[in-house]
Design a protein that fits this description.
The protein is built from 35 helices and no strands. With 693 residues, it is an all-alpha fold. The longest helix has 24 residues.
Length: 693
């Protein structure tokens, strides 16, 4: 049957290709669809015949035999010793099991023969042939159907009065189904649709294989059976620990030492390699344990494990990755000092011109890790010294070491040292200054508020042969804007737009910041219009720069338009933007509106307030002649937000009290200012109302 199905499928494909009309025919598409549909139906029918395996036909044959036995037939079954059925199948000497092809006939004709014989009772009575004993069927594995009934006794009652199609469905395990019309017969529950797909073929094949006993070998579904036979993983059973994880757990079980004490060497040895245990591990395993302990905040245990490795030596001797893991675990100042002392010991043990263990450990991996640890402790001088130690020992510094030391100098606003490192990077053989290194140097000048010098360095970028990226271009635009060189900022911005770099909202904000810092409202409007033509969405920083430019240029009415546009865009305002807009409202004597903005910051937007915002509100009340309200804002500033008044706060309020004949209150404010100044808690430079990002 399987071989015939293959031939039928090949024939259907050939018929589909033969019956297809020429390409030029107008009905080519519909004809091809019809031919493909006919091929699919033919293949489905062939597949349906192939799945009627010997097991299903044998079960259908047994059902007919049981029906014949229950009815007392003597001449209808092919198992009988009688004269065969109405179709001439099965003679008196036919006592063997029929083949698959003969089983089709039995399944098709058995019911009809029994019904005719039962209707003619005289035929059985006049038969001279004695009833023969039927051959007992071979024992078959008990099958269980979907409805819960098992194959075996009572099967004749289950299939009594069924036609061939219903018995086929029953053999497939779908149970008996009632059929009334021709359309319902084609949609019997459990019967396969002739328009079967490839996925349904596989599902039926898996169902048939599931009914068979598991055997070794190939065939469809064999791999799935072997997979089902494998023992499944028990989720409650934990997998065995790896060597590094075991060491970490053993080290964590050690009690934390007291301040100033260290874990004993024998305690660490008992945790790492218990007596009598057969554990295999190496330096890499111990390095993993040190790194994991550092991430869990157990630097003391990690350091104790390092000391054990240093004492054991041999195959457990620390390597460069051991020092990197230990430096990464140092988070506090005391821990960083311990790592720094290890570095100093490596440098002192290194002898020029001789190769030893310490010489090989003085490398860029350890140097960059130690520099990063010192940067976490805000020790820029120690980080810079590690950088110079590498040069003194004749070690070539790579890109990671330069980037680490420039990051430390950027965070501490050390512009001169960063400039020296950048020049060393240009002179170092095999190392080329990168855009990140140049941007870090510019940030060092920016943090030290040396914008003019930083802008001059940015204009000499070609001397360093640096290929700029988007981050570096943004840093140059910001530096030029803060230095007041808007021509340079505009040139860099236009060059960025003409290149392959992507211009974003952040790029426009960097250019807007330069115009806003010096109160160039017209320049801000031009850049903002270009931003809208580029179909970029403004954010809170965009509106912050626009309102700051309007405040500094005196365009207070324009600030109202920007504020209204920001509210329509449903953007939560920035703290600086709120302070600038409150200052604009105060300059127009609109102190009540300014106070409403402050209330929205506190209760609606949940925007943090700073001293600059409170100074702007105090100035708005003073310009409106409301000195009492201004004094109440000073109390709210300390009571609600816990902010200390600044030099600007005292200057505005003392002058307002003196002009309003509140001399006693002015004297109290002066006394309060002097006490804060003597304690070193008085902030001198925080006007903030017009500051930008």
């Amino acid at each position: 049957v399987a071989r015939a199905s293959v031939h039928i499928m090949a024939l259907s494909r050939a018929m589909a290709r033969t019956l297809a009309p020429p390409r030029g025919d107008a009905h080519h598409h519909r004809a091809c669809v019809r031919s493909r549909r006919a091929a699919v139906v033919a293949r489905s029918r062939a597949w349906r015949r192939s799945v009627d395996s010997r097991e299903h036909m044998r079960s259908a044959f047994d059902e007919d035999a049981d029906d014949d036995d229950d009815a007392g037939d003597v001449g209808g079954s092919s198992r009988d010793g009688g004269g065969g059925d109405a179709y001439g199948r099965g003679g008196a000497t036919s006592r063997r099991r029929p083949s698959v092809s003969s089983a089709y006939g039995v399944a098709r004709s058995g019911v009809g023969v029994n019904e005719r014989e039962r209707s003619d009772g005289s035929r059985n009575a006049s038969s001279s042939v004695p009833p023969a004993t039927p051959i007992a069927p071979s024992p078959q594995p008990q099958q269980r159907y979907y409805d819960g009934s098992s194959a075996g006794g009572g099967r004749g009652a289950r299939t009594a009065g069924m036609n061939r199609r219903q018995k086929y469905v029953m053999a497939r395990g779908a149970g008996a189904a009632s059929t009334t019309t021709h359309r319902e017969k084609r949609t019997v529950e459990g019967e396969m649709d002739l328009r079967a797909t490839k996925s349904s073929h596989g599902a039926v094949a898996r169902h048939i294989n599931a009914q068979k006993p598991s055997v070794r070998g190939g065939g469809r579904g064999a791999g799935q059976q072997q997979y089902n036979a494998q023992p499944q993983h028990n989720p409650q059973q934990k997998p065995p620990l790896r060597a590094g994880e075991r060491i970490v757990l053993a080290m964590e079980s050690i009690e934390t030492p007291a301040a100033g004490e260290r874990i004993a060497w024998d305690v660490v040895g008992a945790a790492v390699n218990p007596q009598g245990a057969q554990f295999k591990f190496s330096t890499s395993t111990l390095n993993f344990a040190i790194k994991e302990l550092g991430e869990r905040g157990s630097f003391d245990r990690a350091y104790a494990l390092y000391l054990w490795m240093s004492r054991k030596r041999g195959r457990f001797a620390p390597n460069e990755f051991t020092y990197v893991a230990l430096a990464g675990a140092a988070q506090t100042s005391n821990h960083v000092r311990m790592v720094q002392s290890l570095w100093r010991k490596l440098i002192e043990d290194t002898i020029d011109g001789e190769e030893n263990a310490s010489t090989t450990l003085v490398c860029n991996e350890i140097a960059s890790a130690v520099i990063a640890a010192l940067n976490r402790a805000s020790d820029w001088s120690g980080a810079y010294q590690v950088f110079k130690d590498m040069r003194e020992k004749g070690k070539a510094r790579n890109l990671y070491t330069y980037t680490a030391v420039l990051t430390a100098l950027r965070d501490e606003a050390k512009a001169d040292e960063a400039m020296a490192v950048l020049n060393d990077m240009r002179a170092e053989p095999g190392v080329q200054p990168t855009s990140l290194a140049f941007a870090l140097t510019l940030s060092a000048f920016d943090n030290s508020r040396r914008w003019i010098e930083g802008n001059a360095l940015a204009m000499r970028i070609k001397q360093y042969d640096v290929r700029p990226d988007t981050t570096l271009m943004h840093a140059i635009i910001t530096m030029a804007g803060r230095a007041g060189d808007m021509a340079h900022a505009s040139d860099v911005f236009n060059a960025m737009r003409q290149s392959t770099m992507i211009v974003t909202t952040y790029t426009f904000n960097a250019l807007l910041g330069g115009y806003a810092r010096y109160g160039d409202w017209d320049g801000c409007v031009e850049v903002y219009d270009e931003m809208k033509r580029s179909r970029l969405q403004p954010d809170s920083y965009t509106f912050t720069q626009l309102i700051s430019a309007a405040e500094r240029s005196g365009e207070y009415v324009a600030a109202d338009g920007v504020w209204a546009e920001m509210l329509r865009a449903r953007i939560i305002p920035h703290t600086v933007m709120c302070g600038a807009y409150i200052h604009c409202l105060g300059c127009q004597s609109r102190d009540l509106e300014a106070e409403a903005v402050m209330e929205k910051m506190r209760n609606f937007w949940d925007v943090p307030r700073n001293a600059a915002v409170y100074n702007a509100l105090i100035g708005a009340h003073v310009r409106s002649g409301e000195v009492t309200r201004a004094l109440s804002v000073l109390e709210e500033m300390q009571r609600i937000d816990g902010l200390m008044p600044t030099e600007i706060t005292f200057a505005v309020l003392i002058r307002a009290c003196q002009e309003s004949a509140l001399t006693k209150r002015a004297a109290d404010l002066e006394s309060m200012r002097d006490s804060l100044a003597n304690a070193g808690q008085l902030v001198q430079d925080l006007s903030g109302a017009g500051s930008s990002m």
